[in-house]
Amino acid sequence: MEKKKLDGDESGPSSPRPVDRFGFIKADNNNSPDALKRSKSAFEFEREESRVRKWRKMIGVGGSDWKHYVRRKPQVVKRRVRKGIPDCLRGLVWQLISGSRDLLLMNPGVYEQLVIYETSASELDIIRDISRTFPSHVFFQQRHGPGQRSLYNVLKAYSVYDRDVGYVQGMGFIAGLLLLYMSEEDAFWLLVALLKGAVHSPMEGLYLSGLPLVQQYLFQFDQLVKELLPKLGEHFSQEMINPSMYASQWFITVFAYSFPFHLALRIWDVFLYEGVKVVFRVGLALLKSCHDDLVKLPFEKLIHALRYFPEEVMDPDTLLPLAYTIKISKRLEELRFEYEKVHDKEGQSIESRGKKKHLLERNGSSSVRGSRSRRQTENQNGDTIESPKTKFQPKLSLRRRYSSRKAEHPKLDGDVTYSDQEALQRRDSSLMARHTTS
What we know:
Elements: H1 2-9, H2 33-37, H3 42-59, H4 66-72, H5 74-83, H6 90-98, H7 100-106, H8 110-116, H9 123-130, H10 138-141, H11 146-161, H12 171-179, H13 184-196, H14 212-228, H15 230-238, H16 248-253, H17 261-274, H18 277-289, H19 291-294, H20 299-307, H21 316-324, H22 329-374, E1 377-378, E2 384-385, H23 398-408, H24 418-437
Antiparallel strand pairs: 1-2
Helix pairs in contact: 4-5, 5-17, 7-13, 9-11, 11-12, 11-13, 12-13, 14-15, 14-22, 17-18, 18-21
C-alpha cells in the first residue's frame, strides 16, 4: 500500500512552458477569452499570405530582383517596409536592405577566421554578459547552449574585427536580435554593415569610448522635445529630467532592450531601411502619446513612466503611423551641425594645446637626437652601428619583428612556416658572422 502511494505521488516530467510566436516564454498560458480574441482570424491569415506573395515577387529568388525593384519603385518598397516585413522573410530582407549580403559575398571565409584563429581582449566580458541577453527567449536560455555559443561567436568576431570598438554591453541585444532571424555569419556581417555604415551613417560611435554618438543623439533629442513638445520639455526642465535618464538605451539598442518584441521588430524594419531618424520619431511619438499624463507627474513617477509605457501605447499599428507624421529630417541635420560646431571648437582647443606641448617637447629633444645621430652610422647591410666605444647591436631581425607584431595583434596561424623560420635563422647568423669578421 505504501509503495503504491509513493508511486502515485511521483510526478511525471514537467510540461514545457508556453512560448509566444517569437520564442519568448509567456508569463501565463494566455487561455483567457481575451487572449483567444487576440488570436489571428482566417481573414488575417489570408492577408498575411497575400503580403508574403507580394514580398517574394518583389525580392525574387534569394534577393536577385531586390536592387532592381528598389530602383524602379522606391516608394512602394518604403510603404511596404513601414507596414512590416513578413516574419518568414525578415532575415533575408534585413540583409538586403542593410547591404550586409554584399559584404558577406565579398569576404568569404573571413568570419570563420575571426572566430577560430583570432583572440579577443573582450572574451571574458562577452561571456559574463551573454546570459543577460534575452534571458526569456528559448534560444538563449540554455547555458552554453547553441544560442549562447552563437551569440558569443558573433560578438567575439566583431571585437576582433574592430578593435577600436571591441565589445560594449548593448551590442549583445543587437546581435541577439539578428541571430533570431539569420545565421551567425549573416548576423556578423549585418552588425558590420550597421556599425561601419554600409548604407546609412555608421553606428560605431554609439560604442566608442565616451559614447560620442550617444551624446550627439541625446542632444538632438532634447532639443526636439523642447521644440515639438514645449510644455513637456518645460516640465522636464523643472523636474531636472534629461534624455540620458530614459532614452540612452533607445539609441544604443534601437528599442531591442526593453520594448515589446513585436514593436521592436517593426521599428527595426524601418530603421534598417530609413536610418536612425526613425528612433527619434518613435521616441517623440511615445512622449506625444503620453503627453497629458507625463506633464502631471513628479520626478520619481516620471522616471518610472518614461521607462514603462502603457501597453496600449506600444501597439505598432498605432504608434508607428503617429511617428511617421513627425517630420524632423531637416531639423536633425541642423542640430547635428550645431552640436559638431560646439564640440569641434572644444576639440580644436584641446588639440592646439596638445600640438603646442608636442612642439615644446620636440624642440627640447632635437639637440639630443642630433648628437645621437652624429654618433650613429649605418653600414651597407642596413644594420645600425653605434660609435666604436659601444657594443655592436644588430637591427631587429625579421623573425623577431614578426614575433613582436604577433604579440600586439595576433595573426592567423600558419603565416610563417617552418622552412621560413629556418631561412630567417640562417640570414640572422650570416649577418652576425659578417659583422664579427669586419
